[in-house]
Amino acid sequence: MSSSSIPLADAAALRPAAQRTLAVRTVLAASLAAAVVAAALVARHPHTQTIITVPSHSTALVVLDLSASISSDTYARIGATLSSLAQSNGRYGLIVFSDQAYEALPPGTPAADLQPLVRYFTLPAHVAPGFAPTFPVNPWSSAFSAGTKIAAGLELGHTIAVADALRHPAAILVSDLDDDPGDLPRLVNITGAYRRDHIPLRIVGLNPSAQDAALFSRLTHGAPIVDAGTVTPGPHPRNHTPFPWTLVLVTLAVVAGLAANELWGPRLEWKARP
């Protein structure tokens, strides 16, 4: 017997309570261990996604590449970008281009007005048996089948921003960046004009080649190129992590388990008789 033990005459009567306490503590300990492991696993996978942002309170112009070099493989990426814009609370203008450009939606158009365009870049959910799904024919399929001159789209965006005296204009180029080599001089001039007039230029790449991405990075002095990312209002391009609700719930479970352990398994206390 240890010198620190206190013999109790009714120890046998306390044995059921001791066994019950041991069982409760074992369950709580296992639950806490599972919650801690779950929290660690959730923290390792925060579902971070790269997004591209435009300055807050800006009037953004989406410059969309619909030239022949845009294959059906990238249509879904266009649809995802337009869908993201449509679900935002911003206002946008839309310019579509191939070797020429035209204004499809004026600046300040509510974001929701982009939603009808998403269906042109979304595969239908149901098709007839034996037929592979295909993208719907869009209004630009026949008119925009020529080469790619990205400068045409950017020049129209710059002209609209200056002529309409837009407040805090910004441009979002959505393209595979596979430009006509003969377009390079115009491209150098127009990207310089954007910098001169302090018009931010953001780029959403549609599977661009490394060479094309490097060229535009030089032309824009290192502007990040997001591969068909999500576009959202904000001050700077950044990495965005959605609020970790799962991690919060698991953490609350751990705290609740600790509190339950303190409530259901208090330490034995006693004091001397007066």
Strand order of the largest sheet: 4-3-2-5-6-7
Unreliable stretches (pLDDT < 50, length at least 5) are 46-50, 232-241
Helix content: 25-40%
Distance between the termini: 28 Å
Number of distinct beta strands: 9
Mean model confidence by pLDDT = 76
Order of H and E elements: HEEHEEHHEHEHEEEH
In DSSP terms, counting alpha (H) and pi (I) runs of 4 or more, how many helices? 7
Largest sheet, described in full? 6 strands, mixed
| Percent of residues in β-strands | 15-25%
Tell the overall outline: elongated
Structural class determined from secondary elements: alpha/beta
Cα gyration radius (Å): 31 Å
Q: Could you describe the 3D structure shown?
A:
With 274 residues, this protein is of the alpha/beta class. It has seven helices and nine strands. It has a six-stranded mixed sheet, with helices on both faces. Strands 8-1-9 form a three-stranded mixed sheet. Helix 1 (11-44) runs antiparallel to helix 7 (245-264).
